[in-house]
Amino acid sequence: MSSWTDKRPMSPHVSIWKWHMTMASSILHRITGVGNYIGIFIVVAWLFATAAGPDYYEPLASIVGTIWGQLILFGFTLSISYHLLNGIRHLVMDAGRALNPKFASFLSGLVLVLSVALAVAIWLLAGLVPGVDPLNITGTGNMIATGAAQ
Q1: Which domain holds residue 59?
Q2: 35, 122, 121, 144: which is closest to 83 by C-alpha?
Q3: Does 89 map to a domain?
Q4: Mean pLDDT of the chain
Q5: How does DSSP assign 65-99, residue by residue?
Q6: Which of 83, 96, 93, 86 is nearest to 36 (CA)?
Q7: pTM for the complete prediction?
C-alpha cells in the first residue's frame, strides 16, 4: 500500500497543461503534415487516372465533382496553406526570433487567419468557386474583373 496522499500528478501530463495558441498551432502543424502526405497520394492517383484514360478518369472526376469531393480538395488546399505559413513561423522561431509568448501566440493566430485567406484566394483565382470568374473569361461581368464595385 502506498503512503502517497498528494492528489496532484507525480509528473506533468496533458491534463494539467493549459492549452495555448502556440501549442495548438504546433500540434495542428503536425496534423496538416500528415494530411498533406495523404493528400499527395490522392493527387498522384488523380494523375495516374488522367494518364490512363477516360475509363479511369471519369469515376474519379465524378467523385471530385461532388460537394464532398470539393470539401476534401478545399481542405487539402487549406492544409497546404497552413503548413506552409506555419512552417515559415517555425523557421522564424528556430532562428531565435518571435519567442515572446504573447507575440508567439499572436503569430499563431495570424498564421491561421492568413492560411484561410490564402486558401480562399487560391480557389477564387483558380476559378474553382462556382459562379465566380475572376479573370472574366466567360464575359459574365464579374465585379472584380470589370470594376463594377467602384
Answers
A1: 20-128
A2: 35
A3: yes
A4: 86
A5: TSHHHHHHHHHHHHHHHHHHHHHHHHHHHHTT-S-
A6: 83
A7: 0.77
